[in-house]
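Q: Hi! First time doing this. I have a protein sequence and I read that you can turn it into a structure. Is that right? Here it is:
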Amino acid sequence: MSSELAKLSITQAAAKLQAGEITSVDLVRACVEEAKAKNPELNAYLEIFEDVEAQAKEADTRRAKGETGALLGIPLAIKDNILIKGKHASAASKMLEPYVAIYDSTAIAKLKKEGAVFVGRTNMDEFALGGSTENSAFGVTKNPHDASRVAGGTSGGSAAAVAADMALGALGSDTGGSVRNPASFCGVVGFKPTYGAVSRFGLIAAVSSFDQIGPITKTVADAELLFNVIKGKDPLDSTSTEFPRSDLSSGSSRSDLGNSSRSASRRIGVPRSLLVQGVEADVLEKFEASLEKLKAEGYEVVDIEIPSISLALATYYITNFAEVSSNLSRFDGVRYGLSLKGETLADDYAKSRAEGFGPETRRRILLGTYVLSAGYYDAYYGKAGLARKKLTDEFVKAFTDIELIATPTMPTPAFKVGEKEDPLSMYAADLFTVTANLTGNPAISLPMGNVSRPSTSLGTTGNSELPVGIQFTAAHGDEAALFRVGKTLLGEAN
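A: Yes, that's right. Below is the predicted 3D structure, encoded as structure tokens:
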């Protein structure tokens, strides 16, 4: 019975809680039981909170007093870079390993108000830098579908926890696909809101102009539910913005950056020139089959050209490195983070940062410092800013004629642990996801089926059925279009 409870979606569990068929304690125990059985192998959770059952009992008490709410008593997993007061938040780094948050992030405060239960903090790439959760200081997170493969990143722990029924839903953060990438690899729904739609207050910064908190869930309806709770303008985050609600009745696109036409409704644009770049054949077959399904449901699919999209990957990583260098400069062993003593002050800095940061983080700090340095700023960072503006303008123009842009989420299924030792091959895998962070548009990854790949998990041989995802991007503020197409594709009621 308990394992069946852990398989429920948030909306299913909320209905059972409201009807009195189950309690929050029942749900939490089911998820923790799954975690105790699976986490030793998967390493999705860095910590399961000791007070998780006490949180559930409090939720049950609130319900007994007459409170209702779709998230009251729902067990969620939280990425290790989102602050929960009184809980550790290390961003999966030795630099912050002992840090205990002294306040709640805005997203967490909103979830607490609704009565959500936090099961634990999930593993991630250190400081949200990576694409596989292999860069965590506390070990790799494995894919629930094949433990010889990665769960994706940087929110790999959150995606694995949801896919393995160790939580009913989760929060991650998306810097260049960090919610959508692991959602694709683990076969769940990953949603990145419009930049500014969810407050970043209390999110440990990676790349401030890209980062956005987003839900990872089993269904589109669950992602919509979580988004509607955590979104909204926040006086503590000057970049946050009030966007239209996701339950708009109009079928037309909305954009605060361009005037969408009603004729764009239910038109999907496909940038075909991108699909020739490393997409594996069976992934492309699943993508085309998904488009055909949407055509049968009344969507029109057209080919589009976005001239600057070929520059997206280079533009993204130059900007990423630069902002990482700036944001992580505070962790110097004096003001913040791990503090190790050397013979001189310079030795203190060098020793603390060398031992506190992992190899990928150090690589990005060094490259970011280079592109921001005198003599190179205009040649690299300045040009990247111009390319980013041009790409954003081209997206605005595209959304005057279409409602959605579709691509595979990732060009391949989950790769094997240790397979991508070359950093450039890892970066290239982000081809389809980084554009939404550059332009600030909302995007969603949906499961579109499985492909077969060889497995060596647990010493066995044979094939694993690995999930792959389809990604849709919409105009700024038009989260509603993403939820509509997602529910249509996955057969959920609109």
